[in-house]
């Protein structure tokens, strides 16, 4: 990707309104406000998520590797096998303006501008629930990477629609303290999942507001389990991290 945006330490990044949680257990609304600004609490990030899905085919395992360097640089690699060399993976890379993708299984790639927003959607005069907040560094929409790093929409559209219970705390990746939530019967746009016996377990990093674990239960059965198994805050990420190399036999699509 050409003309990568260099990191300029002299430019002051935006600061979160809530710097840190207090020593006591926060109320759900306080925790949601804290989570909404998770990406403002680091300048760069490296995260790996292991997601297990149970469906009619059995168990599917995905490894999602996320690298971010503010502002604008992001790379997400999704592998559909836990180990071994294979071509069943895809890459999503952006510099904040252009998105490049590569699907190794089909041998296709694309170069497109970042999806534009509806005019007026970021107007500060809109109520908070209707206003679109622009991420400092975009990630592929409607993905587990987007949910874990930019949890504002997940809090507003999913967690806030159900009955949320604070279940306590636990220790997860790299001995990080996380707050455990249970959300009963969250609203969903998928009719098959809109059931009274659906509930979510969500673990939130107490220091940053990032989501570290998401488990989806339907009818007493676990249908999805996504958990961060490696996390590094503010690592040094060279420009090469945010490039995607395309071979000559790759077919370009729009």
Task: Give the helix/strand layout.
Layout: H1 28-35, E1 44-55, E2 58-69, E3 73-79, E4 89-94, E5 98-103, E6 108-113, H2 144-149, H3 152-157, E7 163-172, E8 176-184, E9 198-205, E10 211-218, E11 221-233, E12 251-252
Parallel strand pairs: 6-12
Antiparallel strand pairs: 1-2, 1-11, 2-3, 3-4, 4-5, 5-6, 7-8, 8-9, 9-10, 10-11
Notes on the structure:
This protein has 254 residues and is mainly beta. It has one domain (28-252): Lipoprotein localisation LolA/LolB/LppX (outer membrane lipoprotein receptor (LolB), chain A, Clam), CATH 2.50.20. 8% of the residues lie in helices and 39% in strands. β1 (44-55) and β2 form a beta hairpin. The two termini are 17 Å apart.
CATH C-level label: Mainly Beta
Number of helices: 3
Low-confidence stretches: 5-10
Strand order of the largest sheet: 7-8-9-10-11-1-2-3-4-5-6-12
Pick out its properties.
twelve-stranded mixed sheet; 254 residues; 12 strands; 8% helix; mainly beta; 39% strand; globular; outer membrane lipoprotein receptor (LolB), chain A
Short description:
With 254 residues, this protein is mainly β. The chain has helices at 28-35, 144-149, 152-157; strands spanning 44-55, 58-69, 73-79, 89-94, 98-103, 108-113, 163-172, 176-184, 198-205, 211-218, 221-233, 251-252. It has a 12-stranded mixed sheet with strand order 7-8-9-10-11-1-2-3-4-5-6-12.
């Amino acid at each position: 990707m050409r003309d990568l945006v260099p990191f300029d330490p002299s430019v002051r990044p935006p600061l979160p309104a809530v710097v840190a949680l207090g020593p006591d257990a926060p109320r759900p609304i306080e925790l949601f406000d804290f989570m909404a600004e998770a990406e403002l609490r680091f300048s760069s990030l490296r995260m790996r998520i292991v997601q297990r899905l149970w469906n009619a085919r059995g168990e599917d395992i995905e490894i999602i590797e996320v690298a971010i360097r503010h502002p604008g640089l992001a790379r997400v690699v999704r592998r559909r096998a836990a180990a071994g060399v294979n071509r069943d993976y895809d890459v999503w890379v952006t510099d904040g303006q252009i998105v490049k993708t590569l699907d190794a299984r089909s041998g296709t790639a694309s170069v497109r501008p970042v999806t534009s927003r509806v005019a007026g959607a970021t107007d500060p005069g809109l109520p908070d629930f209707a206003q679109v907040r622009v991420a400092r560094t975009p990630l592929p929409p409607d993905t587990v990477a987007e949910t874990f790093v930019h949890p504002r929409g997940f809090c507003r559209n999913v967690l806030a629609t159900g009955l949320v219970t604070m279940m306590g705390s636990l220790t997860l990746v790299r001995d990080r303290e996380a707050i455990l939530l249970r959300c009963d019967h969250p609203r969903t746009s998928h009719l098959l999942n809109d059931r009274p016996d659906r509930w979510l377990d969500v673990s939130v990093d107490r220091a940053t507001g990032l989501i570290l674990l998401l488990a989806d239960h339907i009818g007493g059965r676990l249908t999805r389990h996504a958990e961060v198994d490696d996390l590094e805050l503010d690592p040094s990420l060279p420009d090469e991290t945010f490039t995607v190399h395309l071979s000559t036999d790759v077919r370009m699509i729009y």
